[in-house]
Amino acid sequence: MQQAVAMPGNLNAAGAPPSEGLRERKQRETRQRIAEVALRLFLADGYDGTTLEAIAAAADISRRTFFSYFKSKDEIILFGMEADSAELIAELLKTSPDVPPLDAVRDVMVKRIARHTTEEMTAIDNLMLSSESLLARKQAFYAKQEQALFVALREVWRQPERQTALRMVAMVSMGAMRLALQAWREQTGKRKPAAQFLHDAFESLRAEL
Fold first, then answer.
1. In this predicted model, what pLDDT tens digit does every residue of 41-56 receive, in sequence order?
2. What is the pLDDT of residues 147-202, one digit of tens each?
3. What's the total number of domains in the chain?
4. Alpha-carbon gap, residue 73 to 174, rounded angstroms
5. CB count, 10 Å around CB of 29?
6. Helices (H), the chain
7. What is the mean pLDDT of residues 104-113?
8. I need a labelling partner for 50 at 20 to 30 A (CA). Which of 75, 118, 153, 207 fits?
9. Is 50 exceeded by the pLDDT of residue 15?
10. Looking at the domain assignment, is residue 100 inside a domain?
11. Rounded to two decimals, what is the model's pTM?
């Protein structure tokens, strides 16, 4: 099963930075190829069962070249998570300030998570649970994403008096995401998509406000 790893940053329609040169383009494509190859190997052979040598060989590069792009297997996973987060933030920044902030974050988060099939989500979730180091990096990532959400919210809704409320929106939004993914993971029987759990979590939150 292949899971695409998006590129972070300010990208144009072709997926490249607007002022990217030939060298930068080749580096970006190589980094992307390594990440995609590594994820396929992780899903096929397990995180611990995949060596750096296997990733380098599958990506058609040397082990030394691998370390020019990533320092560890954890960094590959983090690269994909940060890329997805960057795209989420980019979408949030396009939101009209007339939209309530909590609704805006909900819509963007649900849209992003709905892009992934249940099979993909399950495979990635199992991969994350298979490694203590990945779990630790995931917790740190949540804190980083909460801060990124807050910064983006302040950019769209710029009134200084709203900053405390916007900080709370970022906090409860990440809480809703974490609880929704936990509920999705623990469900039994016919599995509902993660996007439905996330939407329901935001609806429950709104009902209590």
1. 988 888 889 999 999 9
2. 999 999 999 999 999 999 999 999 999 999 999 999 999 998 888 899 999 999 99
3. 1
4. 25
5. 13
6. 22-45, 52-58, 63-69, 73-92, 101-113, 118-129, 132-156, 163-186, 194-208
7. 96
8. 118
9. no
10. yes
11. 0.80
Dihedral sign for Cα atoms in the order 162, 167, 170, 172:
negative
Q: Which domain holds residue 97?
A: 73-208
CA distance 194 to 203: 14
Query: CB of 176 within 8 A of CB of 198?
Result: yes
> Residue 186 is which amino acid?
E
From the CB of residue 22, how many other CB atoms can be counted at a distance below 10 Å? 7
**C-alpha dihedral, 182 to 184 to 187 to 191, nearest 10°:** -170
CATH number for the domain harbouring residue 201: 1.10.357.10
Phi-psi bin for 168: left (phi > 0), alpha (psi -120 to 50), beta? alpha
Q: How far apart are CA 68 and CA 180, in angstroms?
A: 37
Residue 15 located in a structural domain: no
DSSP state, residue 8? P
For residue 2, pLDDT over 50 is answered with no
Nearest to 88 by CA among 68, 67, 59, 111: 111
When pLDDT is averaged across residues 4-17 and rounded to a whole number, the result is 42
Residue at 32 is within a domain: no
Query: 192 in a domain, yes or no?
Result: yes
Asked if the model's pLDDT at residue 12 lies above 50, the reply is no
